[in-house]
Amino acid sequence: MGEFVSMVWAYGGICVYGMGLVGKFGVYGMGLWGICVYEVAAAASLCFHVHKRSAYAGLRGKKKSTGHCLIASLTPFHSVILKTRGRLSSNFFYGSSNKPRTSCAYHQNSKRHSTSLMGAERYPPPWFSVAPMMEWTDNHYRTLARLISKKAWLYTEMLAAETIVYQTGNLDRFLAYGPEQHPIVLQIGGNKLENLAKATQLATPYGYDEINFNCGCPSPKVAGHGCFGVRLMLDPKFVAEAMSVIAANTNVPVTVKCRIGVDDNDSYNELCDFIYEVSSKSPTRHFIIHSRKALLNGISPADNRKIPPLKYEYYYALLRDFPDLQFTINGGITSIEEVNAARTEGAHGVMLGRAAYGNPWQILGLVDSAVYGAPLLSITRRQVLEQYQVYGDSVLRMYGPRPTVREVVRPLLGLFHAEPRNVLWKRKVDAAFRHCTTIKSLFEETLGEIPDGVLDAPITEVPSGSTDTFIKAKSMLPPPYTVNEEELLYA
User: Fold this and answer.
1) Omega into 411 within 30° of 0, i.e. cis?
2) Which residues are within 8 A (CB) of 188 and not within 5 positions of it... i.e. 6 or more apart?
3) Active site residues
4) What angle (nearest 5°) sits at the alpha carbon of residue 172, between those of residues 169 and 175?
5) DSSP states along 382-396
6) What is the mean pLDDT of each run of 10 residues along the chain (491 residues)?
7) Facing residues of 56 across strands?
8) Where's the DUS-like FMN-binding domain (predicted)?
């Protein structure tokens, strides 16, 4: 539904929290889970406290202590969507972002992430981000992602504002996360100003670094029956109102993720009209641009990622025509080489989706060094799997029968992308799903298929070379945009 982390070893410990979504009329799927695992000596360094602990034996015989599960998280396959959009002008929705918020604790004696410095200023700029992807970038994937990259910006799956509003007694199930997941962006969707205001108020105490509004999802459940997602691009006045309402109820930056057009409303000038109206009538200063238009004629979201042609020239023209705004390019970029090529031609930031999911080692493993200039990590895939096993076995069947071994292992299936015996390993894993009851037993049964030279090889440098895709795009820019205030006034 949304074009929609994590585990970081710090002071010898990890902390992972899940997120999820519960619909107004019930639970819509499962699959995100939370657990806190840390060494006793590291407890003082964390931003929250857990007082019940039990011992477990680490992978290498070290004694660690495990906090009791703090939250469950339920991953939605879809959420409750209200079919009508109310437009309310009351100042009730434009609350002060500085007023105290009602909070719901992770745990009886825990606190949300709060520091004197809020938002994105604490972290590297969003030169690279992983797109929000429903049913894919769940907490299991984000755990793997953060083990590999410490600097990539990570997005939640889209959460419908209605879901947050109607589940005030269960907010931690889908809004809580551990402090090591920063930088993290909450993506919300919706079409009712009242619910967007309330949802933002409820989410603000959780300390997300940005809040992103979904104006790009082409799913029939969202843009069709739901009347939000990419369909909102046809109503820039409402989007501007929504962004003002969201911004008034949070103290972090607000951003928009959108496409370059919808159906026949796909000219560059129409895209600029949308950007101009939203940015001039709201505090929005950052747009993530999926460089394809959306077709709302019933085609699938997968086809909407392939059939409409990419028009990177629209993105680069936005950089020219709106020099005071920030734009991240998204769509069709599948390698770190292309990421750097886009940035060389002036892109402020680059967002990858399925490429980062399907090939995490070759993509995320190079982000910190090739994009941010940090030293190349010396971590190996064997070490990543050892750490992931601790997480995985901690969360298995935490709530009834789920998450299952299959659900926890699924994000790992791209870890050996294009490596020798990868296909054989995945076949063996698929067979092991039928009888393995722990992540450890599955690894013991299947990892023998992967050569030691692959398991123990560190991340290698990004291959040299360049791509002229973005150079060509800059040579095809549409004419400069000219604001027609009169047309916008009566649009």
Assistant:
1) no
2) 158, 159, 160, 161, 164, 196, 199, 200, 203, 211, 212, 213, 214, 246
3) 217
4) 120
5) HHHHHHHHHHHHHHT
6) 34 33 31 30 30 30 31 29 32 46 30 44 92 88 92 93 91 79 92 97 94 86 59 96 98 97 96 98 98 85 84 98 98 96 97 96 96 94 97 86 94 97 98 97 98 95 77 97 73 56
7) 64
8) 130-437
